[in-house]
Write a structure and sequence with these properties.
Elements lengths: L3 E2 L4 E5 L5 E5 L28 E4 L3 E4 L15 H8 L4 H13 L4 H4 L4 H11 L4 H27 L12 H6 L7 E5 L5 H8 L3 E5 L3 H13 L5 E3 L13 E7 L7 H7 E13 L13 E2 L3 H5 L4 E6 L2 E3 L6 E10 L3
Parallel strand pairs: 6-7, 6-9, 7-8, 9-10, 10-11
Antiparallel strand pairs: 1-2, 2-3, 4-5, 10-14, 12-14, 13-14
Length: 336
Amino acid sequence: MGVADPQRKCVDIYYPDSQPRKMAVGGVLTDDLLPGSALPVADLFEWFYSDGMFHTPGAFALIVCVTALAQGPAIPRNAAELEQRIASLPPAEQAYERFRFWHTQLPPTEQQAPDVLDKYRAHLIRSGRTSEDAGQQISAIRSEGKRAEIQRWNRILTSPKPRFNTEPNAFLVEMTKGRKAGTALDVGMGQGRNAIWLAQQGWQVTGFDPAQKAVALARSTAESLGLRLATEIKAIDEFDFGQDRWDLILLSYVGARGLTERVERALRPGGVVIIEGTHRDATEGRAIGGGVVFDTGELPKLFPGLRVVRYEEPMARSDFGLEVVRVVRYCGVKPE
């Protein structure tokens, strides 16, 4: 696992040869990074937000297309800009987008709080809405949140002018070099950029996502390329991961928390899980759903039954957002 060095802003990184190396947050070896050095960060980022599976017990579940950390338009900078963007949407979707904008401004721990809707109701009333109107907004979120989220990502993922990396994830490409193709699962496959690449490399690929139009696009693209691709339109809590089923499981910008048992059970001996997400540092000044944000050294701890093949936390160009931020990358293998 990665070991944080708070004085040097770096982590130990484990490579396939099991030898740790030091790397600074900016991808510079720590021996070359002077204490107190500042890494340049742009003042303004076009950042995007998403979450894995957000649950409020006894209330509702908002499904955020798990691949779509940053596959949509930049987050509105203020409420006025938000209202301009959602003016053409149906009232229920407007209510949901207002909640979503507010929700992503919360600290990650508060995003998961069971009383988040009560807090949002109080926020609406403080903002000048009547108690009756606030109640109607909450009712719309409860009843339409899931559908509105899926529709949102259907629009984004099938846009004729996508604003995200449509090439396969670079970490996936690197970690599969020299690995014998087998069965692969793409969790939250979106429009299929990673699943299709894996199929081109000879893998037997299954992917799933709740955004049905995005999945349809993945299927049609695969067919046009003469590739076989198994797909399911399901959310992460609906899909059966199985047991000893996969040689590779990909979690590219999805929520990995809560998946430990399913992933470790589903991997075949010798199989690997490959994960890329966002580091907590990237949330400074940006609204990113807590489900796809990880703390220093957190990912290896989520999968204690796996052996770390590689773990790093470099500054890199994110697939989603297309800006240089601190990301987390993890590859773990199930012991044979």
